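Folded chain entry —
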Amino acid sequence: MSQRYVMAKGTIADLNREAAAMWKELLDPASQLHQDARKKGIAVERLNGNYTDYLKIEKAHAPIVPGAYEILIAVIGSTAAAKVARDVWNELFLPWAKNKLGLTKASTSSGKNLKTAAKKTKKK
C-alpha cells in the first residue's frame, strides 16, 4: 500500500516525530491508545520494534500540484504485522494527522483534493 497526501501545515519531521511517539504509546499495553486500538479490533500485540519497520513516510519528490507539500505513506511488507500497521495508520495515525496537520488524500484522478490542499498550503 502506498498513498499520497498533501499536508496543509507542518512538515515530515512533525509527522515522523508524532508517529514515533504514538507508536511507543501504542506498544504499551497500559496506554489508552493501546486500549483504543484493541477496541477497534486492531491486533497491536502483533507489532514490535519501531514504526519505521512497518511504515515509510517521506516527502514526495514530484508533487502533482506545484507548491503543494505532498507526502507518500507506504506500509512495508506483506506480513500479518504489516496489515496491522496499515490498520494503525488508517484508524489511529491518519485521523490525528488530518486534524493536526491538515492531511488530505491526494486525488490523482481529478486533482480536486490536491488543488484545495495546495490553496490551504499557500495561504500559510
Strands lie at 2-7, 55-59, 69-75, 104-105. The chain has one domain: 2-123. Helices lie at 12-26, 32-39, 80-101, 112-123. Residues 2-123 form one domain.
